[in-house]
Amino acid sequence: MIRTDDLTVSFGETRALDGVDLRVRDGEFVTILGPSGCGKTTLLRAIGGLQSPTAGDVRVDGRPPAAAQTAGDLGFVFQNHTLLPWKSALGNVTFLRRLAGKDPAPEAARDLLATMGLAGYEDARPAALSGGMNQRVSIARALHLGADVLLMDEPFGELDELTREEMGIAVRRVWQREDRTIVFVTHSVPEAVLLADRCFVMCGPPGRIVRAVDVELPRPRDETVLESAPFHRTVATVRTVLSEGADAIQ
Ligand SMILES: Nc1ncnc2c1ncn2[C@@H]1O[C@H](COP(=O)(O)OP(=O)(O)OP(=O)(O)O)[C@@H](O)[C@H]1O
Which keywords fit this entry according to its UniProt record (predicted)? Predict the structure, then answer.
């Protein structure tokens, strides 16, 4: 379980997070949604141990995030993928597992690249791939690491809408097969609903959680979900919560 208790993060005069109490259950796929500057990235970085709390506490499976990271239980995907330029797509995907002392499992890495729509590009170096393709390589790399908890910050930022939907569904498929916990930050309401079991809506600054919206859609999900009435209903609910912002905090 991931839990934050009364988590507050300030940067000088700016209070980026203000008393955030978050609970994410093991095996859950949650999204964090909110307007620009409301503290989504700061929250994700605090969960990952990359940002120290000014006050309050963060625990990942009962441990401080740094301990979870040292144990290889935390994986990250950020907007700016940091692939090694001299390694192929396949080499980049297997590299982190090798570094963590795990079996590099190249066949599974090939499968993941194919799931990400990159079959045939295994030997290509980052310079020969588009930004969106490199983003998909970095997602495959994070999934391949096999960490229990995966933190993803706008990982589809460079992708067009159709590819975003395809990648979202692919990530959910891997998540469901391998029983991970995923915390996924996004600006996009449809994406937040398509992917999540629960969607945390934030407002700010100072960043606070307005509400957790349960997403009751079928599993596994595919593109047809996007046309369904429950999907549109949930999107409408989330939009209302977003527009009410701080007024919706009970
Ligand atoms: N390192 C930093 N130094 C100073 N202020 C910061 C720093 N990081 C974030 N902030 C401020 O904290 C607030 C929250 O920023 P954060 O990046 O977490 O928001 P966000 O919701 O992820 O935004 P976006 O959706 O635009 O990426 C903003 O006011 C931002 O300017």
Answer: ATP-binding, Nucleotide-binding, Transport
